[in-house]
Specification:
30% of the residues lie in helices and 25% in strands. The protein has 1279 residues and is an alpha+beta fold. The protein has a nine-stranded mixed sheet, sandwiched between helices. A seven-stranded mixed sheet has the order 16-18-15-19-17-20-21, with helices on both faces. A seven-stranded mixed sheet has the order 34-36-33-37-35-38-39.
Length: 1279
């Protein structure tokens, strides 16, 4: 009889030298030590000891059996499984090591000092919410041992009465109201039985504020008068007033907005890509994940983005997420050595992360999920705000806002879920159940500090974006069908299966029968309640017809996507969960009980007049000092540290991201996406939020939030305001009169202005527990957020070419105009009031909606007529910020003339709605007259000048500073956080680039003849190219599009096809190995993918024969480049190739970078020698590491194909011009006499000029990178 046994192996160094040095500094500083630290990965293996392939697993893991004791170990908490483990076990299975049962990774830390764990701060070594410290190996050897399943619990209310329910409510953290407890007591008393914990947990999640939105559906009494509409009614009024473009609102996971006909890249039944005209609509959804981000920032933000992505994918009968957004509100950062005058002593509870910790870790979590899933994040915002404590109370964001949203694509025929019927199969698609995220819906519905700390641990979630990618591939394949197998789909979020499956049944007015044992489960110790209600991520529930079972299963198997048929739909309108092991029903209740008519919440509020404050005189504050402080404020300052960590080009459907101009400055007002690879139509996406105004005027804060979302949109010509759709997200601290009143006023105001502008709000979400309470000593402290309404607006765009940005034009005689609604300059709630710590009574507002509409439509008309050259809205920081940010785009100066203005500070720092536009000087009078006649205020306030930004009044100079110095100030926050989070040397390098006078930004030098494309496509031959992918790859669509447009038959080839010998490489002339995150890059980028090939002889032989066939070509990009580099021993002439390792920055880097095509024998780069162009680059492990003299050998053999270059077209190692630190800038190589070319950048994402955030004006439809694909076609025709 075989027995299992655990093995412990040692792997590579856990972290880069710079990251270890960061940990060392933190540890020594916190503990007053001077210790040295080193760390290695430690692998715990559970295997069948009778048939264990030791050499095989050591090879796969690149590990050794060396037995070394470490000071301590960090690993996943007992009873949990890390994402690394899930992905690595997939690799182990796919390479054929069938006797490995479990694999887990820990980190061994060796410290050269004797110390006692109990008395030292070791918090910098681990995430307390997801990891544990194990002092010795013996402490983690039992990581794989599962306890017996915990039992089902019954709450004995029959004998002990309602008090037992109240006790259970507290101990389980159900967060149920007294009305709900009464409701349940009555139900079970009438049933004459006791409830199970599984039933109560299910009920609590389904009826939490998070899921039921009780306050938005509540009755309202204001000053003794009953209001005749709920908050939800007010929101719905907008869609009634302006239904244009709305297909689905308020009844699905996301809103569906009418699109247009476009050529969709379709994958047919033969897995061949083809362009098919289709009606493509848009989806929009924005969520928040505030509580999880407060207690564990990285997984909280990661699963926040992941959950919103699932919402989009599960819309209708299946949709495709396209572009995403993220946003953050936190209290004051208090960056060490960079404390600001307005930041006072910090007070916060220990159990939540600090604002700085959140902004270091949470953005990485959200970006990592988006990156690995393959959705570009092209929009966002960041606000830092906190007031001083008064009577132990303050305003701020100790409970942060973590906003995650996006827009997607859905075929018109998949808009609506179908009515399913009795005996339909209920399927769980995605990962297994784990004891994570339990009770998250309820936890998110209470203020931070009011729940039990142990329940915070239970509500932390775990991310696995690579699994969600596999699920999305299944959804994509089904939704592309003429009649999708998916008839009903729901994402699994709050409440887990206990919420998703009953909702699936309830929406169809049917019931459901589920077998507990069929639910995929990785933790055998879980109780029925825990299996049913855990919130393990990356899961969906689907209903399909039983006739489609085998066909659906084949799709899942090809994508290696876990699935399980867990039950059936029933005519009986009940939820039955059967436990075969115990022959009982942990859940057996009618749907009417779960979604029954609970008492409607009643909100009673009393209006009150705010006491006016003693206003400061704004003109008393020093102008220069104030400008510097404004630029230093995190809300105004550069957001580069939030942006470059996120892939913004994956998918190839992005026409505008956050970066602007040749210097790639993050000041874009909007994001633009494309409908298709062949269309110029798309969607514009913007954000508006003004929460600081709400402390004085909640209604104004919402009017201004909507106005900001629209002025941000002003630079793109849209079809009209009636086609703007808005997602409104509401964050407030409900439960106190002042906060409830502010919420009511804010919703009423947004509803009214939206109706007036003909704008609809078809989707949104609320999070109404934005308060943190805790004891500090014997005092109770409280931090409450202001009403925070975040408005995300989208609109269809006919032609994404027609639009302008803040990028200034420097080759014409121009003037800068200020366009405003009126001459008011109100300062309450402004950044000025924060940095000067001054108070004012009046906030900016939209006093006249008609004038605002006139301003917006007038600017749109000027842009349509090409009369505006550059545009920037006025928002945080005021007019001064808009002007200076525009100067950054070209590193040029500006002279601002305020001679006719009395109150300089009010004019420069107020945040009244308006625009700054650049126009030709010859058009100034005409434009001013036209706009003034329409009732707008227009002022000719500035002209461009060299180098310096100056302000004058009546011949007197009030301010004069180098634009470079101002940009350095503006970058301080980004640089500081980047220094803490990443490699500090690299952060310093980027800042030094400001002083490099030889750096002139991006440029292009290429002689591309676009007519080749038309000529090549008239040829009759269509060679076949394999678009090769492995699980986790996400860049196949843009690769297929580029090859298809170039005249190829592009065929989707999954590694599973090769392993099962359903497809053979010999049938293709070309192979394109795509980018992404194969296996989540857990064993080194491309490592798991290459090992899958090398460990399977039949597949390895196919690749080797293909590489040796002189009639074939191979292109490997990014992850494909990394994978192919690991196959260099079977590629002719590739023996000197480097390994691709972690970027020197220790971070994923996504940038538009400058590269030069080298003279090489690469057939794909033929006739491109010397071309220098921008290209998309997005990777975390792209640094080419050469052994010995291999680099010299490659240079001598003309095998260096691409390199990063500076503005002088010289090879560079300077960051960020070289984003990964490769020696001599090497980023592309060739072998096999030029037939195999690998590169880290992504030419397939930027084959159209529209796909670049900057390009020369003289480029036509395509970028010069299209030459690669044309060359491939020419080679294929010649061979």
């Amino acid at each position: 009889m075989s027995k299992t046994k655990s093995f412990i192996f040692k792997g590579k160094q856990s972290f880069s030298s710079s990251k270890l040095e960061q940990i060392r500094r933190q540890f020594n500083k916190s503990n007053n030590l001077n210790a040295e630290i080193h760390s290695n990965e430690i692998y715990l293996i559970l295997a069948d000891s009778d048939a264990f392939n030791l050499d095989g697993i050591l090879d796969v893991l690149s590990a050794s059996t060396q037995d070394e004791e470490f000071s301590f170990y960090v690993g996943p908490r007992l009873g949990t499984i890390s994402p690394w483990s899930s992905k690595t076990e997939d690799i182990v299975r796919n390479v054929g090591l069938n006797n490995i049962i479990r694999v887990e990774r820990l980190f061994g830390f060796q410290i050269n000092k004797e110390f006692d764990n109990q008395n030292l701060d070791v918090s910098m070594f681990f995430d307390r919410m997801t990891q544990s410290i194990y002092p010795t190996k013996k402490d983690f050897e039992n990581l794989f041992i599962s306890d017996k399943p915990r039992s089902l619990n019954y709450i004995d209310l029959i004998n002990k009465g309602k008090e037992e329910l109240e006790i259970a409510n507290r101990s389980f953290g159900f967060a149920m109201s007294s009305d709900e407890i009464d409701y349940l007591y009555d139900f079970y008393s009438n049933e004459k039985r006791n409830p199970t914990d599984a039933e109560l947990m299910m009920f609590a999640q389904a009826n939490s504020e998070h899921c039921r939105h009780k306050i938005f559906n509540a009755k309202w009494n204001l000053d003794g008068s009953q209001k005749n509409n709920t908050l939800f009614d007010l929101i719905k009024e907008t869609s009634k007033a302006s239904p244009d473009g709305i297909i689905s609102a308020y009844k699905d996971n996301a809103a569906i907005i009418e699109g247009t006909k476009a050529e969709r890249l379709h994958l047919n039944d033969s897995n061949k890509y083809e362009f098919v005209e289709d009606n493509l609509n848009s989806t929009i959804k924005v969520e928040t994940h505030n509580h999880p981000t407060a207690i564990s920032p990285y997984p909280g933000a990661s699963t926040g983005s992941g959950g919103e992505i699932r919402d989009e994918g599960a819309t209708g009968r299946g949709a495709k997420p396209k572009v995403g957004l993220v946003g953050y509100n936190v209290s004051n950062l208090r960056i060490p050595n960079l404390l600001r005058s307005w930041e006072k002593k910090e007070h916060k509870p220990e159990r939540i992360a600090s604002p700085l910790e959140i902004m270091v870790d949470a953005p990485i979590g959200a970006a990592a999920f988006n990156n690995e899933f393959g959705r570009p994040a092209t929009l966002g915002y960041f606000r830092s705000f906190e007031t001083v404590f008064n009577d132990n109370k303050a305003r701020g964001y100790h409970k942060p806002i973590m906003l995650a949203g996006g827009i997607g694509e859905i075929r018109d025929k998949n808009n609506f879920k179908l009515q399913i019927d009795n005996d339909y199969l209920v399927i769980v698609l995605g990962g297994p159940a784990m004891l994570i995220g339990l009770g998250g819906g309820a936890a998110s519905s209470v203020s931070s500090g009011e729940s039990d700390e142990d329940l915070d641990f239970a509500s932390v979630q775990r991310d696995n974006a690579e699994m969600e990618r596999r699920c999305q591939e299944v959804i994509n394949k089904c939704s592309a069908q003429e009649n999708s197998y998916i008839e009903f789909i729901h994402d699994v979020g709050a409440g887990g299966l206990s919420n998703a499956i009953p909702e699936l049944a309830g929406d169809s007015n049917l019931g459901v029968y589920i077998e507990l044992s069929k639910i995929p489960n990785s933790d055998k110790s879980m109780s029925p309640m825990e299996i049913w209600s855990n919130e393990s991520q990356e899961r969906y529930v689907l209903a399909i017809h039983k006739d489609n079972k085998e066909a659906f299963e084949s799709i899942c198997k090809r994508e290696r996507c876990e699935y399980a048929i867990v039950g059936v739909i029933t005519k009986e309108k009940s939820v039955k969960l059967y436990d075969e092991a115990n022959d009982n029903y942990p859940v057996d209740v009618p749907l009417s009980m779960l979604f029954g008519d609970l008492p409607i919440t009643e909100m009673t509020v009393t209006s009150n007049d705010k006491e006016p404050v003693n206003e400061f005189n704004a003109e008393d504050f020093d102008l220069k000092k104030t400008i510097i402080k404004i630029l230093q404020h995190p809300t105004v300052a550069s957001k580069s540290f939030l942006i470059t960590i996120g892939d913004r080009t994956v998918g190839g459907m992005v026409a505008r991201d956050q970066f602007i101009g040749p210097y790639q400055v993050p000041v874009s007002d909007y994001s633009l996406s494309l409908r298709s690879f062949t269309s110029n139509s798309g969607e514009v996406l913007t954000i508006g939020e003004k929460p600081t105004l709400a402390l004085t005027n909640p209604a104004a804060s919402m009017r201004m939030a909507l106005a900001e979302s629209l002025t941000n949109m002003g630079g793109v010509v849209i079809k009209g305001l009636n086609n703007v759709q808005v997602s409104a997200n509401w964050m407030a601290a409900s439960g106190e009169n002042q906060e409830d009143l502010a919420l009511r006023e804010g919703v009423e105001a947004l509803s009214k202005i939206s109706v007036a502008l003909k704008i609809s709000i078809p989707v949104g979400k609320d999070s109404l527990s934005m308060k943190t309470k805790w004891l500090e000593g014997e005092q109770e402290l409280q931090v409450t957020s202001p009403l925070s309404g975040v408005v995300t607006a989208m609109a269809p765009v006919d032609d994404v070419h027609i639009g302008v940005t803040p990028e200034l034009h420097t080759d014409e005689d121009t003037s800068i105009l200020l366009i405003k609604l009126n001459d008011k300059n109100r300062l309450a709630g402004s950044i000025f009031s924060e940095v000067t710590e001054s108070k004012y009574n009046c906030t900016p507002d939209i006093d006249n909606v008609d004038i605002f509409k006139t301003m917006f439509t007038s600017v749109q008309e000027l842009i349509s007529n090409q009369e505006i050259l550059a545009i920037h809205d006025i928002s945080d920081g005021g007019l001064i910020t808009s002007l200076i940010e525009m100067c950054f785009t070209k590193r040029i100066g500006m002279k601002v003339d305020l001679s006719k203005i009395e109150n300089i500070n009010e004019q420069l720092f107020s945040e009244e709605s308006g625009f700054v536009v650049q126009v030709k000087s010859e058009n100034v009078n005409q434009i001013k007259t036209s706009l003034t006649d329409k009732g707008l205020i227009v002022k000719d306030i500035a002209n461009l000048q060299e180098n310096n930004f100056s302000i004058v009044k009546d011949q007197s100079e009030l301010f004069n500073e180098s634009i470079i110095n101002l940009e350095r100030v503006w970058r301080e926050t980004s640089h500081a956080i980047q220094s803490i989070r990443d490699n500090k040397d690299i952060a310093d390098s980027e800042l030094r680039l400001l002083d490099d006078k030889s750096f002139s930004g991006l440029m292009a030098n290429a002689s591309f003849n676009e007519s080749q494309i038309k000529n090549i496509n008239i040829k009759s031959t269509k060679p076949r190219v394999a678009i090769l992918r492995e699980q986790g790859v996400n860049g196949q669509n843009e690769m297929a599009a580029a090859f298809s447009i170039s005249g190829f038959d592009a065929v989707d080839v999954h590694m599973q096809d090769l392993l099962e010998e359903k497809v053979f490489l010999k049938d293709f002339q070309g192979m394109a190995v795509c980018g992404g995150f194969s296996y989540g890059d857990v064993l080194g980028a491309g490592g798991g993918w290459s090992k899958t090939i090398l460990f399977n002889d039949n597949v390895k032989d196919q690749f080797e024969r293909f590489f040796n066939n002189e009639n074939t070509f191979t292109l490997g990009v990014c992850n494909g480049c990394q994978m192919l580099s690991n196959l260099k021993n079977i590629i002719p002439g590739a023996s000197y190739w480097p390994a691709f390792e972690r970027n020197f920055s220790d971070q994923f880097e996504a940038r538009l970078v400058q590269v030069k095509v080298k003279k090489s024998d690469s057939l794909l780069l033929r006739d491109m020698d010397g071309w220098t162009m921008p290209v998309a680059s997005a990777h975390g492990e792209g640094r080419a590491n050469f052994n010995g003299k291999n680099l010299e050998a490659l240079k001598n053999n003309n095998q260096i194909a691409l390199s990063f270059v500076d503005s002088n077209q010289k090879d560079t190692e300077i960051y960020p011009l070289n984003p990964n630190g490769s020696v001599e800038g090497v980023t592309g190589l060739t072998a096999a006499n030029g037939r195999v070319t690998i590169m880290m950048p992504h030419p397939e994402r930027v084959f159209r000029k529209l796909q670049m955030s900057w390009h020369p004006k003289d480029w036509k439809e395509f970028s010069p990178w299209m030459q690669i694909f044309i060359n491939a076609k020419k080679f294929s025709e010649e061979n």
